[in-house]
Write a structure and sequence with these properties.
Helix content: 25-40%
CATH superfamily: 2-C-methyl-D-erythritol 2,4-cyclodiphosphate synthase
Number of helices: 6
Oligomer: single chain
Number of domains: 1
Distance between the termini: 24 Å
CATH topology: 60s Ribosomal Protein L30, Chain: A
Strand content: 25-35%
Strand order of the largest sheet: 4-1-7-5-6
Structural class: alpha+beta
Radius of gyration: 20 Å
Mean pLDDT: 89
CATH architecture: 2-Layer Sandwich
Shape: elongated
Amino acid sequence: MMQSVKKLFSHFLQMIGCSSTKALPRMVTRTGIGYDIHPLVFGRPLVLGGIRITHPQGKGLLGHSDADVLAHAIADALLGAAGKVDIGVYFPNTDASIQNISSLLILEKVSEIIAAEGGVIINIDATLIAEEPKIGPYVDLMRSSIAGALKIPVTAVGLKATTNEGLGAIGRGEGIAALATASVEMQYLCR
């Protein structure tokens, strides 16, 4: 029985391009998920996907950086796909030197972290959840802004928006949330 298991495992290693006697690098596709939410407050700019947007009530998102929930969700999705920790470790809200920074800089840094490990961003898909403002008119600008920060084609960035149908804190207009998935090719070393 044990010989059969060893033979099957050896065959599997050969199928995926690995052997027990040498290490072979391969690229594997990995997926990550990100989520972020911030409260809406008066006296702050509203930035989504790196684009400054006018809120009908003059509100913006509260946070240590520019509070761009879309960029933050994308950053976490990318870091997750790369097997890394969340953006709070790389950009802690206790670091005064990064207060009010553009979240596009966070995306640039995350892209550099992935590239340093031999990774390649394949695509992003994200959804903004907000009662207002209407996001549709800004989608193309946001996609271009995100793609530029990540140095990927704009066609690799999917972006949608929806409401919360009046339900919960988002439905009452108290905040905005974003969900994102990311696919990344990462180098995998067979041993």
